[in-house]
User: Fold these one by one.
Assistant:
Number 1:
Amino acid sequence: MDRLLKTGRESEWLEFKESNKNPEMIGERISALSNSAALHHEQFGYIIFGVEDGTLKVVGTTFKPSSEKVGNEPIESWLLHRLNPKIDFRLFEFEYNEKPVVIVQIPSASLQPVRFNREAYIRIGSTTRKLNEFPDKERKIWQNEVHSSFESEIALSNIGASDIIELLDTQTFFELIKIPYPESREGVIERLLNEKMIARTNGRFNITNLGALLLAKDLNNFEALSRKAVRFIKYEGKDKLKTLKDAPGKRGYAVGFASLMTYIEVQLPTEESIEKGGIRHEKTTYPILSLRELIANALIHQDFRVTGIHPTIELYSDRIEISNPGTPIVSPNRFIDSYRSRNEKLAAFMRRIGICEEKGSGIDKVVFQVEQFNLPPPSFQELENQTKVVLYSYRPLSLLSKEEKIRACYQHCCLKYVSSGTMTNQTLRERFKVEEKDISVVSRIIKDTVEEGMIKLSDPDSASRKYSKYIPSWA
């Protein structure tokens, strides 16, 4: 409310009302403000009830959407049924300066205009018009010409330089990029501008989504990004029946990554071994390098357009699951050898400060570490609006399921291939850490994996099966 009042006037993505609660009017305004927000590169449009237009005096409103109905239907539901597409607009009722006010937060149109009762609207100045009267504007929305990357969009607008220092962890930022902290605030601002963490507009500043996601002291200060913070949950057993810890994060990904990994490492189960000289040594059940890479990947490759889902790390007694919003843009079976990112600016910065590996060299290192720890193969899963990776605690080969043995064989074959090698019965025995006497067991696993169409002979004409070499089926 403070931020929107500071704009000083209505605009094509912001409208002030007192108590006009005509549902048809509200529906038309939602359409108009959503479409106009897209054209002006704003993440949201807004209607504020309880503010006098012109003076911007907060006078309060009699409009109470929580109790308003159209016929017998709640007004929010009535509006939603008449919008196409059904955008996730939100109604907030609260008191401001002891006056009742309502904010309607309206997502920017994406890929197509938002229509109300089959008609699309737009704001021209402070008036609402039909979008079909302005074909050039309609074409831009349909052709997606108004949309930049999520990272370039604005997380918080119209703020001063002091607000930037208050909201972003600039001290850690300069430590991460290994540059001495500037002697003046202007030097800090200039570097943030160069890095696209902030943008300048009319003598004020906007914090970009990139800047907030990487550097925020508290992501809850950015309303559209509060659900993008990492959440860590620890359970007592193999299911969700008893939660031991539920720790929602709040810091930006870059400035908070080291402390996140330290916190998680403390929570992991450990194993004690006796080394030469009788020295006791503890190691974690899971390879930290693999966890680090998988967590960084979950943050980098998430689909920020998917709402309502946190990047989440869940620790069970027998496994750890890492999930992020959005389905992958590369098939999970090709994670080891392929690379594509939705959020390349975010990924580039995380690589630059050493949080994740170079393009395409991360998941192979995950699998390598898993093999070194002699763990079951990780599971890469594509779910509805979500991607999940599961690391499992140790189980001997005899207790792995057929599906897990095939997956381990396939991943090992891919790992060898991207390392300019080939898989053999011997390399797979070394992966499972079994003796040569178990050659028939490993041969059976290879045969099953070939029959599943996951791997193939590198030389189909070879007469020897004992010394056969294998490559992934896609190679």
Number 2:
Amino acid sequence: MCKATSIPRVSAKARKYVNEVLDFGFHNCSSPGIGARLERQFAERFGCRFGILHANGTATMHSALLAADVGVGDEVIVPPFTVFSTAAVALHAGAVPVFADVDPDTWTISPDDIRRKITSRTKAIIPVSIGGLAADMDPIMELATQHGLTVIEDNAQCFLGYYKGRVVGSMGHFASFSFQASKHMTCGDGGILICDDEELATAARKAAVLGFSTLSARPGDVVVAEELRCQPTFQRHTHFGYNYRLPEIAAAVALGEFERLDELVEMRKHSAACLAEVVADCDWLVPQKTPDEYVHSYWTYIARIAREEIDWTAFRRKFGELGGDGFYGAYLPVYREPILPKLSDAARNQPQRYPQFAGIMPDYHQVRCPTWEAIPPRIIQLKTNHFDPADAQRQADILADTIRAFS
């Protein structure tokens, strides 16, 4: 039986830092510096020099693409097993998402299929640490070096995971993390982009903050000094950018949660360990493979139902009837979400309306990733966000009862 202690849903430090912001008040050109502290400390924890806070984890990746000069006519390679945002940011930048299949055991993007999908138009790769497990980063970075590509790690689901001794987030040219409510640490929504290259980090900052001319990669550099802004001849906007800033009060919550990140990750690992004990005794539930030298951070515990006669819906229904929290299936392969085939049809039929995609967008009706397509109908994604270890053990016991019901 797994052992651990319960932790609060929101840390005392988060409440303290929120009060600091409230006591300081809201001002256009000054703040108590909470956001700057979070940017600096987060980047350092993940082995980078620069952090840029954003309103969410989609905005982070969009800024990274813009900083890398990805745009119209370019291609961005992404996996089919991910949240839609990973592909959507390519479209936001005017580029085309191209899908590389997954490894059959880890379900992360396959470096071999990335190699097959690289063309003269490829500009970036966004590997996803799905469920909390890193992609195979060494060969991906080798391909990026060979072809001059930018790598943006999508680590929305992976905090303090490790790959061959390196913390996940320290290997790509950029790494994106989400603070959305379901993630390891949260402030309700938000995200951060980290980077080790000052020129790229500055470009990402400007992409995230309206392209203001004076912005830099320095922590907390998100506004133009009043003495400059008040001048009638001041040229504010030298780059194209968006208004993706994270409010200081949200940064205060995020800083409090970041300062207890280790215990938040250990909580997830504890829940996953309880589930893993149960799954180890079942020969027809196959967990996501964690290769040697990887450390999984278990945003969710993922397994595949390997017996064809067991219906996914019936299994979930029984789990719920026995008191289980429920679980998620896998997302559709992203290219099967209705918007992408609709968009490829529109680009073909109305090229004057979508000139950036005319002649280069794939027909997403025809896109296939056969390895991944065979897997999603059998996937279960079990929750790991149990702040009370007794709840984690109870869910594991219910999973065991559910397995017995089908055995």
